[in-house]
From TrEMBL, chain A:
Residue span of region Disordered: 103-124
A GO term for molecular function: sarcosine oxidase activity
InterPro entries per UniProt: SoxD, SoxD_sf
Biased composition (Polar residues): 110-124
Highest taxon of source: Bacteria
Lineage, opening ranks: Bacteria, Pseudomonadati, Pseudomonadota, Alphaproteobacteria, Rhodobacterales
Membrane-spanning parts: none
One GO BP annotation of this record: tetrahydrofolate metabolic process
Gene3D superfamilies: Folate-binding superfamily
Pfam families named in the record: SoxD (PF04267)
Name used for this protein in its record: Sarcosine oxidase subunit delta
Automatic annotation (TrEMBL), chain B:
GO MF term list: sarcosine oxidase activity
Domain Aminomethyltransferase C-terminal: 879-964
Species this protein is from: Paracoccus laeviglucosivorans
Identification of the protein by name: Sarcosine oxidase subunit alpha
GO biological process terms held by the UniProt record: tetrahydrofolate metabolic process
InterPro entries linked to this entry: 2Fe-2S-bd_N, FAD/NAD-bd_sf, FAD/NAD-binding_dom, GcvT/YgfZ/DmdA, GcvT/YgfZ_C, GcvT_C, GCVT_N, Sarcosine_oxidase_asu
Superkingdom assignment: Bacteria
Gene3D superfamilies: 2Fe-2S iron-sulphur cluster binding domain, sarcosine oxidase, alpha subunit, N-terminal domain, FAD/NAD(P)-binding domain, Probable tRNA modification gtpase trme, domain 1
Assigned protein family: Belongs to the GcvT family.
Domain FAD/NAD(P)-binding residues, every copy: 174-423
Domain GCVT N-terminal residue range list: 588-858
UniProtKB/TrEMBL annotation, chain C:
Stored Pfam families: SoxG
UniProt xrefs under Gene3D superfamilies: Heterotetrameric sarcosine oxidase, Probable tRNA modification gtpase trme, domain 1
Coiled coil stretches, renumbered: none
Name this protein carries in UniProt: Sarcosine oxidase subunit gamma
InterPro entries documented for this protein: SoxG, TrmE/GcvT-like
Domain of life: Bacteria
């Protein structure tokens, strides 16, 4: 049974105090998106053996959602971080690579204006 | 001899108190033991060597071990509700007045009919279930299965509720040490002195492990360690607490026996500890292995360590003439202990070519014959050992000598107890020289930080010679003698409880079972209640030999928790009876309870389904309630409805995303019905939202939807639109809500006074704030019944007061409390959908003819893109219609309407199904709703609903609004 | 019969106000309006008979004598003015219990997975008690536990069961 430290309140909570929320960093595709884009958003999940990014809610606690980077095989937790980020933070990436030197990010983070969120782009 | 039995030694027994005798019963016989005895030691002292029968052959069996690994001495304890099957006699402390019974035998332990299986052993080989009983098929069902079911399974399940209580407790520590022997206590002392918080768990009632029995200075060492540890306030020492499993991230479960079989103490019988350990020290010691020689299961053949435990710990002689058979030096300690206790040791049979270590020499010095290069060819005796046939270990069993003895102390070497290490992924290495699997420190179980979360110490780490460095190496012995005949192997037991023998494992290998996991399941090796603690290593050595491969290539089976079985009561703990689940109660719960409420669970809530008067049936009560509401006025406890405040500059924008309809344009003071979908497009919840102020909405959800919808909103706000300025608050329980419904609803509320509730002041779908009967209230003019209806929300602590005032003031109006079923029927009469009836997670609003509740203007809402998928837009989707029975029979719920033809599976095609069905007391006929392919375009068509065992139901497709189609009644 | 591990008493007179706001920006406004300092993360600050409990980084719970709740809610709402915020009188929403006595911690240890033994003196811990959500902080001689009112009977049953005489968690 996992323990994760909620980055929003600093509490180390056990799995029964948390609610899982599936894969993190999904980009929402709404009206106007192609069938392929919508399918990938709604259904396609990585389900990796190894490094994985997940959504968790500190349900029996501060109630906040947060994200966790962990290894699905060894259950090692590389770190937890705020949900309000479109990609794993540089600190998390560094923490993972310190333990898994061969691991490389599989996303292409825009080099500029990384603070623009999917939400903002959607609601314009 | 002692009063507590002919086999109680005149002296010794470090754990017993000879001053306190304890009477107990075994199979109806009155016996006596001593304070400190286990059941096994008390029975042995009384001369009761035979304690049970094996599972398959019903062979007579005595204990072979003295601890948790015991496979044979498994008893039923207690009576009626406190009866518990399959309890280990070797680990259960004796309590005065205890009632114990042998198992797996009928009519009695000594004369057992099932023992006929013993004569048929050639016909009950490995995999006999699979081989024998497959054909003919009916024979399995009618002949074999009933017989096997009766004779299989150890013990009997109790038939009454367990009257004992159990509890659980959580704890946290930097370090948890499992095992209170010298190795564990030393580790605890070291960590304790470093200032760490330490918990030490010892499964037996006594700290010290094997040290006091095996080493002259053992007790002194333990006493010194205990004294030092007790001086450390940061070290917690728990006895009688067995660690059952180690799980992810240092989560350790342990069972503490508090008042086991002492129900009069009024204490919980057991406590399950749920401990989060920073690190775990596995100091669980080692278990001795039996030797595989013919007749090794005859009562009186025991592990050498158990023999000396019974002598030293309990002052009990397992026999008077104890023959020792071994492949190592350690077993010579048993010979010495027996001699010290005044017992006879006719010989030590040592499979090794020579034995010249200090221990063998000490035994020789006491005048005992040591026969090296020797083995046991067979044990004679039925219910007890009579004599032992000796042969050369290198040969095939030619008998050289017969030695009389009533006890055989065997030792095949020791296996580290690696269960906890292995439960969560720790790996093992095979050590050829010591013939054992031991933890591989390079491959430990890892925790949240990726580092080792456990460290093995002492014997559990493979350090078997701790404190005795001068022992000579053992000789691995898997079959004794080496070239034993096939006939001898039929009598060599590996798994004593499940009756798996060397011959079975060899047969399995021959038949192609090369994986140890497959062999385990095929032969049932290690699958009994002892989980193969004494049998597994021997079994996989035999398998390896049969497969002609080294032992590590065969590997071990998976170690799974619990280490020894946990009683279900301990796992459930407080969650039974009233506390089985949290019951959510509204402020009016007790009023309803006192007035005949027939409860319905809705999530964890209890809602009144109806209120029973006198001898009324629920069906009659529902009909009465509906008539009363439609004729005058009724009240519904709607407190369970979800109530979520949504506030902020972006609240309107946010709600437009949550709902399919437009909420941002709702004027302050007004209410609007809305639908909430998930991102799949499927309908998730519905309810009425009210705009409280320019930036504040109150969202009503379904009873079951409150927490879910609040979480749904917070998810989108926190994880997608985190820059939107919106706060939500789930205030469901702050308010009691009463629906006052019926043509006289306004009259009744006006009697309580305080607010203008006229049609002009409070039109339909508006809300107002004020006081009713002096209670602060919000009143919503919304209707789920089609009648004039006011939903009155007041602070929860005043809900009952409002409810009672309504009933006091409305006596002459026949004001009637009504329940959820009346509400359901009335909404169905009006054709209103119910989440969970008309929806099942695959239904979109468009299916329900609710396109009017979907905004065409909005560019986006949760679920909009999904509803544009081709399948969602298909004209062939099943859509909501009313269904009118053609013969006056009520349609069964959930039945399917059949179509022409059959599908690929040969089943009838279907074209619709019933989603709600009732008898309407208002219309005095059955009504139903359903989802039907092209339904709204097929008005008047008759559908067929075949039901097994009944005449096919037929119903006509009609408009789902059965009552008051023009909707005039809602205006009063 | 030995004594129960702790005295379990339902507290009937507590008023509660749920506050949601950007605590960094509006902390001073809140502290001034309610007369209690803003608590540090996962802790409680107290002034007289009022306590501010930290619920999350944008939520506080003001616990105060019930008769003061309506006025305090209004005062907060006034103080916030047009700032994005929420102040709600939720005095009726919860059941609150005191758990008093030398072994009060043992009672909670049987129900809550949180490490309450190492909770600071002014700590506030939200966790679960068996199957329902709860919040816990210390008071003189014991603890306060709050949960939702609908499960008040369940919580009382849990606490009384866990406090049964003779069931202390000390090693035997």
């Amino acid at each position: 049974m996992l323990t994760l430290t909620c980055p929003c309140c600093g509490i180390s909570a056990e799995e029964t105090e948390l609610a899982p929320g599936g894969e993190a960093h999904l980009k929402r595709f709404g009206p106007g998106s192609s069938d392929d884009e919508f399918e990938s958003y709604l259904f396609a999940r990585k389900n990796p053996k190894g490094v994985h990014f997940e959504r968790w809610r500190h349900a029996y606690g501060c109630g906040k959602w947060f994200l966790a980077a962990r290894d699905t095989v060894t259950l090692e937790v590389f770190g937890t971080y705020k949900a309000q980020t479109p990609y794993p933070t540089p600190e998390i990436v560094a923490a993972i690579q310190a333990k898994r030197p061969d691991w490389k990010p599989d996303w292409h983070q825009p080099s500029v204006n990384t603070t623009t969120t999917p939400a903002e782009s959607l609601t314009e | 001899m002692s009063e507590t039995g002919p086999f109680r030694l005149p002296r010794g027994g470090r754990l017993i108190d000879r001053a306190y005798q304890l009477p107990f019963r075994f199979d109806g016989r009155q016996l006596r033991g001593l304070q400190g005895d286990t059941i096994a030691s008390a029975l042995l002292a009384s001369g009761q060597l035979m304690m049970g029968r094996s599972f398959k052959y019903h062979r007579p069996r005595g204990p072979i071990a003295s601890g948790a690994e015991e496979p044979n001495a498994i008893l039923g304890l207690g009576q009626s509700g406190r009866f518990e099957p399959n309890q280990r006699a070797t680990t259960t402390p004796l309590v005065g007045g205890m009632v114990t019974n042998s198992q797996n035998c009928w009519p009695s332990l000594n004369v057992d009919v099932g023992a006929v299986n013993n004569l048929l052993y050639r016909f009950l080989p490995a995999g006999f279930y699979y081989k024998t009983f497959i054909h003919p098929r009916p024979a399995w069902k009618h002949l074999f299965e009933p017989i096997i079911r009766r004779s299989a399974g150890l013990g009997k399940a109790p038939t009454e509720a367990d009257p004992d209580t159990y509890e659980q407790a959580y704890d946290h520590a930097d370090l948890v040490v499992v095992g209170g022997g010298v190795a564990g206590l030393s580790a605890a002392l070291e960590a304790g002195r470093e200032g760490k918080s330490v918990i030490v768990l010892e499964q037996t009632p006594v700290f010290g492990g094997r040290a006091a029995v095996d080493h002259a200075d053992g007790q002194a060492r333990i006493d010194a360690l205990l004294a030092d540890l007790r001086a450390l306030p940061n070290v917690t020492m728990r006895r009688s607490t067995m660690a059952t499993g180690l799980y992810d991230h240092g989560y350790l479960l342990a069972r503490e026996a508090i008042a086991d079989h002492d129900p009069n103490a009024g204490l919980p019988r057991q406590r399950l500890w749920r401990i989060r350990a920073g690190h775990v020290v596995v100091a669980t010691g080692a278990l001795e292995r039996p030797l595989s020689f013919a007749g090794n299961d005859v009562p009186g053949v025991m592990l050498a360590s158990a023999v000396r435990d019974f002598i030293v710990d309990y002052g009990v002689a397992p026999g008077r003439s104890i023959l020792v058979v071994t492949n190592n030096d350690d077993a010579y300690r048993t010979a010495l202990a027996a001699l010290d206790a005044g017992l006879t040791v006719p010989a030590v049979i040592d499979a090794r070519p020579s034995a010249t270590g200090a221990l063998p020499e000490a035994v020789r010095a006491r005048g005992v014959r040591v026969l090296t290069g020797s083995a046991i060819a067979g044990v004679r005796g039925g219910h007890a050992v009579e004599d032992v046939k000796i042969c050369s270990h290198a040969g095939s069993g030619d008998v050289q000598e017969i030695i009389p003895a009533d006890c055989v102390a065997m030792s095949g070497g020791w296996s580290p107890v690696v269960h906890l290490w292995s439960h969560c992924g720790g790996k093992l290495n095979w050590h050829d020289d010591r013939a054992m699997f031991a933890p591989d420190l390079a491959r430990p179980p890892t925790g949240h930080d990726g580092r080792a979360m456990a460290t093995p110490v002492g014997a559990a780490a493979g350090d078997l010679l701790v404190g005795a460095a001068d022992e000579q190496p053992l000789l691995p012995v898997w079959v004794m003698p080496v070239n034993a005949t096939r006939k001898m192997k039929f009598k060599m037991w590996l798994d004593f409880q499940n009756d798996v023998k060397v011959s079975d494992v060899e047969l399995a290998a021959q038949e192609g079972y090369h994986s140890v996991e497959h062999t385990k399941r095929y032969t049932t090796l290690g699958m009994a209640t002892d989980q193969g603690k004494v049998s597994n290593i021997n079994g996989l050595a035999i398998l390896s030999k049969a497969l002609n491969q080294p032992i590590p290539q065969t590997g071990t089976t998976t170690f799974r928790p619990p280490y020894t079985p946990l009683t279900l009561g301990t796992i459930a703990a407080e969650a039974r009876g009233e506390l089985f689940q949290p019951l959510r109660k509204t402020p009016m719960h007790n009023w309803a309870e006192a007035r005949g409420a027939h409860w319905e669970p809705v999530g964890h809530w209890r809602r009144a389904y109806c209120y029973l008067q006198g001898a009324e049936t629920p069906h009659d009560a529902v009909a009465r309630e509906i008539r009363a509401v439609r004729a005058s006025v009724g009240t519904l406890d709607a407190s369970t409805l979800g109530k979520i405040i949504v506030k902020g500059p972006d609240a309107g924008k946010f709600l437009d995303m949550m709902y399919t309809g437009m909420m941002s344009t709702l004027p302050v003071g007004k209410c609007r019905y809305g639908l909430i979908c998930n991102e799949n497009g499927f309908l998730n919840d519905d309810g009425v939202a009210a705009r409280l102020s320019e930036d504040t909405w109150l969202v009503h959800t379904t009873t079951g939807g409150a927490d879910r919808m609040h979480a749904h909103m917070e998810d989108w706000l926190q994880c997608e639109w985190w820059d939107w300025k919106v706060y939500t608050a789930n205030v469901t329980e702050q308010w009691a809500q009463v629906a006052v419904v019926g043509p006289k609803a306004r009259v009744l509320l006006e009697r309580l006074g305080g607010m203008d509730l006229s049609a002009e002041a409070l039109p339909f779908m508006q809300w107002a704030e004020g006081e009713i009967a002096g209670i602060p209230a919000r009143v919503f003019r919304i209707s789920f019944s089609g009648e004039l209806s006011f939903e009155v929300a007041v602070p929860a602590n005043r809900g009952l007061e409002l409810w009672e005032k309504l009933h006091e003031a409305g006596k002459d109006l026949n004001v009637t409390p009504y329940g959820t079923e009346a509400m359901h029927v009335m909404r169905a009469e009006k054709g209103f959908i119910m989440i969970g009836d008309e929806t099942d997670g695959t239904v979109i609003p468009q299916d329900l003819g609710m396109s009017w509740a979907i905004s065409k203007k909005k560019t986006d809402y949760i679920g909009k893109r999904a509803q544009e998928r081709s399948f969602m837009a298909s004209p062939d989707r099943w859509k909501l219609v009313g269904l009118e029975s053609v013969d006056g029979r009520m349609l069964p719920d959930g039945v399917y309407a059949v179509a022409e033809g059959t599908n690929a599976n040969g089943q009838r095609n279907v074209q619709g199904r019933v989603t709600s069905t009732y008898v309407s007391p208002t219309l005095n006929k059955p009504i139903a709703m359903g989802l039907v392919k092209h339904g709204p375009d097929r008005m008047g068509e008759v559908l067929e609903f075949p039901v097994a065992g009944a005449e096919t139901y037929k119903a006509r497709i009609v408009d789902p609004v059965f009552y008051d189609k023009e909707g005039s009644r809602a205006n009063g | 019969m030995a004594e129960a591990l702790a005295r379990i008493t339902q507290l009937q007179d507590l008023g509660m106000i749920q506050i949601r706001a950007d605590l960094a920006a509006l902390g001073d406004v809140i502290a001034k309006a309610v007369g209690v300092a803003i608590p540090a993360q996962t802790s409680v600050s107290t002034n007289g008979n009022r306590s501010l409990c930290w619920m999350s980084h944008d939520e506080l719970l003001l616990v105060l004598p019930k008769p003061e709740a309506v006025a305090a809610t209004a005062a907060l709402t006034d103080a916030f003015g047009s700032s994005h915020s929420l102040a709600l009188d939720v005095s009726d929403m919860r059941a609150a219990f005191s758990i008093d006595g030398a072994k009060a911690l043992h009672v909670l240890q049987k129900l809550c997975p949180a490490d309450l033994a190492s909770m600071p003196q002014d700590g506030m811990r939200r966790t679960r008690a068996a199957q329902v959500a709860c919040g816990i902080w210390r008071r003189e001689g014991g603890y306060v536990l709050i949960g939702f009112r609908s499960v008040g009977d369940y919580l009382r049953g849990l606490l009384q069961g866990a406090a049964r005489p003779g069931t202390q968690l000390d090693p035997r």
